[in-house]
Amino acid sequence: MHKILFCLLAISAPAWASGPDEPFFQPVSEKFPLPQGIHPIKLLTDYNNTVHVLAKEGLYYLAGDKVARDVRFRPLADKVPADVTVQETHGHLYYLLADKLITNGYAGVPYVTFPANTYDRAVVNAAGNALLSGRGKMAVTDGKNVQPIAAPEEGVSELFVNDGIFYALTPRALYRVAGGQLQRLHTGKDVRTVAFKGNDIVLGTPEGYYAIRRENGDTALALQRKVPVPSVARLMVTGGKIWAGTPQGAFTENGSGGYRYFASKRWLDQDEVKDLSADQDGNVWILTSSGLNKIAFRRHSLADKTDYFQRKIRLRHIRYGFIANIHLLTPGDVTTAQMADTDNDGLWSAFYLGSQAFRYGTTREPEAKRYAWEAFEAFERILSVNQLKGFPSRTFERKGYKNSDPERWRDSPDPEWEWKGHTSSDEFVAYIWIAAVLNEMVAESAAEKQRVAAFMDKIMTHIIDNKWYLVDIDNKPTLWGRWNPEYINWYPETIGDRRLGSTTIVAGLQLAYSLTGKEKYRTEAMKLLNKHHYLQNIQIDYRKIAPTKGYIHDGIDMGNGGWNHSDDEMAFLTYWVLYKYAFTDDLKKAYAGAIRNHWEMERPEKNAVWNLITKGTSGDFDEEATMWFLRTFPMDMVRWTIRNSHRKDLTFLPENFRGQTTETLIPLDEQPVHRHNANAFNLDGGDGGKSELAGDEYLLPYWMARYLKVIE
In this structure, is the dihedral angle defined by the CA atoms of residues 501, 697, 588 and 580, taken in order, positive or negative? Predict the structure, then answer.
């Protein structure tokens, strides 16, 4: 593939406000591979926005979506320029050949000649004058004549022109040309490149960048070491912001005193940057040894982003109604995608079904209702595909094509199918969530509501009849499908399972009572809440959760390790059900306090779903974090290998139980792709582009925000 759409993100912090979905600018990355076997040297764009790549083998340009040898001008087709440059201000392309400097601009009139192989670098100012350098030689030209000037002993690394003035960079100093000779402006060690910003000259070094005043060389900006990658190889200023190319990607100022970091195959074909350029439309071009990468700044809205994910999901992520994680037979190539079952098809599908429920609740679009019911068909099938009464399978597949955990699969009574057992509490959370939102927003007729009620009734009856367990085909409770008081209250308050298990089962009983009207569900719920202290458990202060070793369940030390982010996901989905279906106002008040307590712990992670569920229940809300989440959520959901732990612009925290690695959260599109059950502060991750997530993780908070009128 020569052109691939990648992730979108906000380049600078906008002013957050509820109301209309205002469009905003986001960068979009596209990749264009270089022809095999060439060795690129330099990148530049002319005034026609034509992108040129100078290689040892000749001059190339971007022709449509392909980088091709530039043979458009027959007199130059077989030439290999020593250098090419773009005239300051006017943008005409100039060619430095072995014995002349020429341009095709101005009807080809400007040119100068000199002895062959004298110069290998050139820059041209707006007046048409040029500065040339070669081995031990330098010269200035007026478009006709060549005037030699004394060259520095250490040799010239690079030439520049800005505001009509020529500059020469050497390993020891930065010079400017004045009065027909070089004047030392600044002495600097290991300066690799320079760029011009207003009245300052920015200098890049292996340890960061700094700036000097162009008129006298005085320091204008101290050395900036706290940047994503201090080893600055290339510099550019465009749109008033500094861009830096490094051996580990590119970065730019974010407008708020920090940086945005473009690295990994989410953004670049490889991380080692050889050169940078910008065109007149504000697009940034990044050259590597194997590719040309464009970062275009496009105006779009959250609704545009939503449309993209909705189309993407319908195209390649629906498996029998479930949301499917996909495997990429060729890493990064979505045309080789294959859908496969996972251990939590129900839980992941609950996010998608939920998004369509909130969408229908907001827009009444028939398509949303159809998609919600199609997803629900998969949930109904997890009950009918197996031979057990009221036991929900984890997932199902045609016989012989199972993917995950082969030892957990069982034969279905239907010889064409298999089903997966060992169903867990996180799948149960999916069932109560989807039943609640279907009932509230999608089920309109009595028959539709009865359909949802029957689903919930079967599962809850199974759990009650089996003494608060999910019991598999082996007649044993599953590892995690356990809500029996002896099990729940065995945990101390410092292990989250006590609070979480109490929360999920009470929410399920309340929901089942509301849907079916069967008194047994209310009776059993009140017994758990009061006799077995589940109400007290639900209100355990989350600040008490801490490492608590020695509580062994089926060989697993339940209090060992760090914070369980999967438990956060389960809890927040449950909170909607727990609060909305509370038996009494007093219970609602108690639940609201418990939700608020958990939300306050989670605020640093800026999760939009947690924020919106909290808004819809206890009423607490972090609007800025929610909009930040939606705007920086990556559109490229391929699981590229991504690293951030090497960055020098981040403030790292000591190792802690919460797993918060940095003082503040980096934007989602700089993080490894992950679902809501992961630690948002994980800096490194990915699988080399071998799989792709669907994007329902974005659709749910977007449609919740619309439903709750955070976005109009």
Answer: negative
